[in-house]
Amino acid sequence: MKWLCRLAFLVVTVVAAGLTVGPVSAGERDMPGATVESAVALARRLSPELAASVLNADAAAHRVGAAGVQPDPTVTLQAWDVNSRGVGQRWIGVEQQFRLWGKTDLEKGIAQADADAARRQSEAIEVDLGARVKTAYALYGAAQRAVDLSKSLKQRVDDLLALLRLRYGASSVDQQEVIKAEIEAANAAADVARREGDAKSAAARLNALIGRAARTPLAAPKGFRPLKTKLTLAGVQDLARSSNSQLAATHAQVRAATGAKELTDLNYYPDITAGATFVQRPTGENSGQFLLGFKVPLQYEAKDAEQRAASASLGAAHARNEALRIRLDGDVAEAWFRLEAVRKAIKIFEQRQLPPARLSVETARKGFDAGTTDLATLLESERRLRAIELELLAYKVEEQSKYADLERLAGGSL
C-alpha cells in the first residue's frame, strides 16, 4: 500500500508541475523540458528502471506476510488390515509441526529487514535517476545556449561580410579582407551546425533518461535551475549519513544478517511435531492415538558450518556498511570541494574576463567602423568573447552537475 501511495504521489507531482506553467498551447503543455522539475517528475513516472525497483520492493514487502508462519498441518487417511473381506481399521489423523524458540519471529524480522533494504535500494535508484536527469538537463540547456551564441556570432560575421562586400572597390577595403571574412563566415556556419548537433544529442540523452524515444520533442529550456549557495561540508555530510538511501539499505542488510545469525544459533533447538489419530474399527470400540516427535540434531558439523557462515555474513554486512559510510564522507567532500572551486572560477569569469571581453568587442567594432581597427583585430575580439562565453557555460554545467552529485549523496534535494 505504501508503494501505491508513492506511485500516486509521483503522478500528482507531474500533474502539479503541469498546472504551474503559464498559459501555453496544448502541445507545449505536453512537452517537458522547460524546467528541470518537469523533466525529473516525468522521469520518475516513465523510467522502467525505477518502475522495476519499485516492483521489486513491493515484492519484498509482500514476502514479509509469508515469512515466520507455522507449516500447514498434514491430514492422514490410513486403511489397516485390508483383505478380501474389506477394511479392518480406518485411521484418520492430523499432524502439525511447530517451530518454537522464537524462530518464526526471527524469520519475519529477516523478511522485514530484506523488505526495508529493497525499499531503500529503490529510493536510491530514484535519487540517482533524479541526479542524472538534472545533469542531463543542464547539458541540454547549455547546448541550446551554445547554439544561440554560435548563431549570434554567425549573424555578426555575416553582417560584417555584407558590409565588406559593399565597401569593396569603393573604398580602401581590399580583396584579402573580403576573403578573410568569407572564411570566418564559413567557420561560423560550421560551428552552428556542430552546436545544433550537440543540442540534438543532449536532447536524445535527456529523453533516454526520462524513458522516452530519443527523437521525442522537448520544450525549450528556461535556463539553469537556481542553486543554494550557503552550504557547509559538515552539514552535507551529516545529511548524507542520516538520509542516504544506500547507507540505509546497508543498515537493513546488517539487521537481516543479524537475524540470520540468531536463527542459525537455534539450529540445535529442534522443532516438534504433534499429532492425533482417530482409529475406527468395524467391530469393537473406536480408539485414538497421540503423537509427539522431534528431530535429533545429530548433524552437528553441518549446523556448526551454518553458524560460521552466518557469522561471516554478518561481519561482511558490518564491513560493507562501514566502508560505504567512509566512502560516502569522502565522496561528499570531493563533490563539495569541486563545487566550491567551480563557483570561484565562475565568479572570476563573470567579474574579470567577461566584461573586458565585451568591452574589447565593442571598442573593436567602433574602431572598425571608424577605420582605425583592422578586420583581424575585430574577428579576434569576437572569437575571444565567444570562447569566454562558452567556457563560462561549461563551468555552469559543471556547477549543476556537482550540485546534483551532492544531492544524490545527501539522499535528496539540499
From TrEMBL:
InterPro entries per the UniProt record, alphabetical: MdtP/NodT-like, OMP_efflux
Signal peptide: 1-26
Domain of life (superkingdom): Bacteria
Alphabetic keyword roster: Signal
GO molecular function ontology, one term from the record: efflux transmembrane transporter activity
SUPFAM superfamilies per record: Outer membrane efflux proteins (OEP)
Family to which the UniProt record says this protein belongs: Belongs to the outer membrane factor (OMF) (TC 1.B.17) family.
Full protein name: Transporter
Taxon lineage: Bacteria, Pseudomonadati, Pseudomonadota, Alphaproteobacteria, Hyphomicrobiales
